[in-house]
Every structure is written in structure tokens, then in C-alpha cells.
Design goal:
Layout (H helix, E strand, L loop, with lengths): L6 E10 L2 E11 L4 E5 L6 H8 L7 E6 L2 E5 L8 H13 E4 L11 H11 L5 H14 L15 H13 L5 E5 L7 H16 L3 E5 L3 H7 L2 E6 L2 E6 L1 H6 L4 H7 L8
Parallel strand pairs: 3-8, 3-9, 6-7, 7-8
Antiparallel strand pairs: 1-2, 1-4, 4-5, 9-10
Length: 259
């Protein structure tokens, strides 16, 4: 492959008052990659995603996404205007889907999807609605545009959340345990949307405990533990011949039917 990666992370560290969460994370992700991140609870997976989307400000290191760079030096406690502006630009390039859906309950599905394009990008209502209906059709919810989130199943609600994130026309989609609150059938609906987006060339990073999906759908898998990337490999390789004992110990918790 040629050209610069769409996402480049170098020496990313994130600390809170009670200690370090991410320790010198470095990774390149190419445009069109579908990447799954696995690892034990509390290892820093979700924090890493939130740093990529600048929902959490990095303590130090560099993140470049679609040509936009945020950078902080070790010991730098300032958040100057240039840093905050770069964070804002990255958020415009990155869509985020959360475990808890986070749709506005008092708005219809359609209104949830059109809100950000109209308020952030200045799209007209007609333009935003046309795009929203196209995206709702993509995720199988065109006939649910006038419904409210409380009337949807969990899988439908999460698919609506994906359509909402796509409405901003992001270059990257991030998912933080998007199926953990769903039963297997509903989870399958959401995972299929990700596979369809992958076929269209969308760059996607998914924090997941869905091991079978990670193995079968990902271009490669990142295993994290203790705030570090322990190893990165093709799913079949990582699940059958992991290089690290930490990876092997984690995978022992999953029976073969889930791998």
C-alpha cells in the first residue's frame, strides 16, 4: 500500500489524577480498514477511542486524522487555541457510536439524524432530510423515520445512531462496544451494517467483545492490555497463534464457539 495512513497515532499518552491509562500508543490505520480492538475491561480501549475523537484530550503525543493533527508535548498543561481548533476539526471528520445509543428521546429518528448537519454544517432542512432518508434506508430504517427512539428495538436504535453519525459524512467511524447491550439477533443487525459500510470503503474502528465478528470481519485486530497495544495481527493469526502470553491468557476466557 502507498500513501500516508488516514490515521496516524504516535506516542499517545493519557493520564488522569489517579494514574496513567494509555502508555505510548502508536498505530497507523489505512483508509478503508476495519479494525477491531479487543482486551480486558479497564485496559484503555474506550479511552483510546475517545482520544481519537478528541472527546478526551491527550496528555501527550500526536494524533493525525485525515490530515488534521493534534499534538501535545509531555508536561504541557496548556490547551491553546490552535490545539482546541484542531480537536474541533478532527471531530468533524470522525463519527462516534456509543454503547448507550444517546439518541434524543423527544425527537423522531429523522430529527435525530438531521440535527447535526443542520446546526453544525448549515445544511438546509430539505438537504439534510434527503441525506437522512438515504442513510436510514442504508441501515434498514427508512420506514421508521417518524418513530421515536422509545418505540424501537435496541438493534434499531443503534442502527439509527449509526445513521446519525454518518449524516456528518465522516471519514472515520468509531464504535465503543456498540452491541454489548443487545441480544445476539439484534447485535447481528448492527454488525451487518458495519460489514456493509466496510464493503463501501468506510474506515472503522470497533471496540468489541464480539470475538467471532472481530475475527471474521476485521482487516486486523488490536489486542490492548494495561494501556498498551500488546499485538496487532490478522484475526486468524491472532486467535490461533498469538505472540504474547497476555493475549493467550485473555483468549482462554472465550470458548471455541465464540472464536
Amino acid at each position: 500500500m502507498t500513501g500516508d495512513p488516514l490515521i496516524r497515532v504516535t506516542d499517545l499518552c493519557k493520564s488522569y489524577e489517579n494514574g496513567e491509562v494509555l502508555n505510548n500508543i502508536s498505530i497507523d490505520i489505512r483508509e478503508g480498514d476495519l479494525v477491531s480492538i479487543i482486551g480486558p475491561s479497564g485496559c484503555g480501549k474506550s479511552t483510546f477511542l475517545r482520544c481519537l475523537n478528541c472527546l478526551e484530550y491527550i496528555t501527550s503525543g500526536t494524533i493525525t486524522i485525515a490530515g488534521v493533527t493534534v499534538r501535545r508535548s509531555p508536561g504541557d498543561t496548556r490547551l491553546d487555541g490552535a490545539f482546541l481548533d484542531a480537536c474541533h476539526e478532527i471531530r468533524r471528520e470522525v463519527g462516534m457510536v456509543f454503547q448507550a445509543f444517546n439518541l434524543f428521546p423527544h425527537r423522531t429518528v429523522l430529527d435525530n439524524v438531521i440535527l447535526a448537519p443542520m446546526t453544525v454544517k448549515g445544511e438546509s432542512r430539505r438537504e439534510a432530510e434527503e441525506n437522512a432518508m438515504r442513510l436510514l434506508a442504508k441501515v434498514g430504517l427508512r420506514d421508521f423515520a417518524d418513530r421515536y427512539p422509545a418505540t424501537l428495538s435496541g438493534g434499531q436504535t443503534q442502527r439509527a445512531a449509526i445513521a446519525r453519525a454518518l449524516a456528518m459524512n465522516p471519514k472515520v467511524m468509531l464504535y465503543d462496544e456498540p452491541t454489548s447491550a443487545l441480544d445476539p439477533e439484534l447485535a447481528g443487525e448492527v454488525l451487518q451494517v458495519m460489514k456493509d459500510l466496510d464493503a463501501e470503503g468506510m474506515t472503522q474502528i470497533i471496540v468489541t467483545h464480539q470475538m467471532r465478528f472481530a475475527r471474521n470481519a476485521s482487516d486486523y485486530i488490536i489486542f490492548m492490555d494495561g494501556g498498551e497495544i500488546v499485538e496487532k495481527d490478522d484475526g486468524d493469526v491472532l486467535f490461533t497463534t498469538p505472540k504474547s502470553e497476555r493475549t493467550r491468557a485473555f483468549l482462554r476466557h472465550f470458548s471455541e464457539e465464540y472464536l
